[in-house]
Every structure is written in structure tokens, then in C-alpha cells.
Design goal:
Length: 366
Amino acid sequence: MLLWKESSIFASVRKGIIMKDKIITFGEIMLRLSKPSHNRLSQGRVFWGDYGGSEANVAVSLATLGDQVEYVTRVPDNAIGEAALMHLREFGLDTSHIVRGGERLGTYYFESAAAMRNSLVAYDRKDSSFYTLRHGDIDWKPIFEEAKIFHCSGITCAISQDALDTTMDAVKLADEMGVEVTCDINYRKNLWNYPGADAQKSLHKLMEYSGFIFGDQNEWEIASGLPHIPFEAMDADYDLDDEAYLRYFQELQVQFPQCKRMLMALRNQITTEHHTLSGILFSEGRLFKTRIYDIRPVLDPMGVGDAFVAAFIHAREKWQDDDQRCLDFALSASALKNTIPGDQNLVTEEEIIANIENGGSGRIER
């Protein structure tokens, strides 16, 4: 006798229908090592260890918001690689198609900003497990069978020719299989150093397959060649030039006709601990803008863009017909990330909405 009632998902599988509701992200998970108490990398003997990497940050944030997420990467087949996978599984991520191989996990060292001293990032990712990924190591077809969205970024394309080719294989197949491609431009000039690397050409090609593209004003300029519009907000009362942004996005639409939604993060770093943050959305010919957050103090700016991307993807799945609500939600999530140490945005949907509604009062929740 059956003691459970067949759920709709089991019924769908039995009938040969595959539910396509999974979000796939692809990139390199990295070990982040940083010094406590704003120490310089040359000071002290203690490092704090955590995990980061743009696409991993997006995956963790989406999972925290309640989405079904699979993360695809390559990690070493040793205790360090297993520790990274345990971190991902903590948040309920599907890691079933992660490839094992290589000698080491990519690492980066982070020195936090203080007063007039800027933050500093030093990468140690050459010859990492992901760096030595080979074109063909990942079989994308079974991964995309249950996928609704595939998220990738320009960082992956910058690591090596094989990583670029693997990413392009993925976006082309996703497009063929009806999986929406979302892209974070994520331009990192110091990574584009392998023979034949062409950042603008490669990013432009990646973006041509994307239904949703995210980037800050400088990244949009790098990818498109169009000079960005300066964002010089000193506080929340700054007025954006709506007409200028509308014309800008209309020009971008000519370059990326397949893209239905373009999201631009606007940030002005007034001091290391005082930032203003806003965002613009161009959706199917219409321009949407949202409030400006005056953030002071900034505890950790790493992963702020990843939080923006993840929250917008989540919101689009939940409130598909309300672009303004999606933009407000994404910016609120990104603003909150500035208050959380580490790369990943560990806030819930309820907290993001509360931040929108109460304006970040900081009151005690009892």
C-alpha cells in the first residue's frame, strides 16, 4: 500500500515531462584569505578563511532566497576540494556535475580598506583546478535538461582559452535547448592575459546570447565601446539623467538585440566606508530607475554586484510582470551585502523586502 500521495513533480517524470526550474551557475569557486581587524597582508600571522568567486556567490545567494540551484565547476580531488563542496552543499546547492581534477583550489587574498587606504586583492589562481580545465571536460547536455536559467560571467571567459571555449559551448547549447542565458559582464583586466585573449570581442560574443545582462557603468563601456554616463551621487538626493540613460540603452539594444533586460549598477565610492549605490533597468524598450542608497559604513564591498544579479534573477522568477519591483528588490539586496563580511550575501527575501519598506532603520528585530 502506498503511504504517500504522488506529487506533481513525480507525476510529471512518470509521464515523461521534465520540470525545467533549475538555475545553473558556472565558474570558479575560490578560497578567500583575509586579515582580521583591517590589518595589511604583511601584518600578523592569522588569516581568516572563507569562500568566494562571482558565480559561486550568485549560486549561494539564490539558494538562500529559496531557489533550486546547481553549481558547476572543477575542484581538486583532495580534502581542500571536498571542503569547498561541503561549503556549497551547506546551502543546498546541487553539486552533482562538478568535475574533479587538478592540483589546487584557486585562492585570493583580500586586504580590507581603512580610511584613505583602498582595499587590495591579490589573486593566486594560476594552474588552479579550474585554470587547468580543458575544453570538453564538462558535458552540458544532461546539466541543461532540467534547467530554466544558465548564469555565467566574463570572469570565467578571462581565465583561459579552454574556459572561454567551455563557456561558449554552454551558452550556445543553452540557447538551442531553450534555457535562458543570464550574464554578468564582470570585466577583470588583469585576468585577460592568455595568448590571443580579446576581452571586448569575447565579452561581446557572450552577451549576444544573453537574455539578461548585468554590469556596472564601466563594464558596459568595456564590452560595448560606448562611453559611460558618470554617476557622481554624494547622497540619496542625486538626480539621474533619465533621457541620457534611455538613449544609452537604446544604443546598447542595437548591439544586443536578443537581450530583453539590461541592468546597470551605479556606484560612487566617496570614501572607503561611504558609498552611494543605485541601479537602472532597461526592459523591452522601457527605462526603470530606483532609489539611491547612501551606505555608511561599508563593512565589505566584495560580492555586491553578485548580490544584485542573484536578487534580480530571483525576483524575475517571482514577480515576472513587475520590473520596478524586481529592480527595487535587487538594489535592496545589493545594498544589504555591504553590511555583511565575506563574499556571499546571506540575507533572506523577507529581510530584503523589510529593508525596502523601512528604509534600513537598523532597529532590533524581536
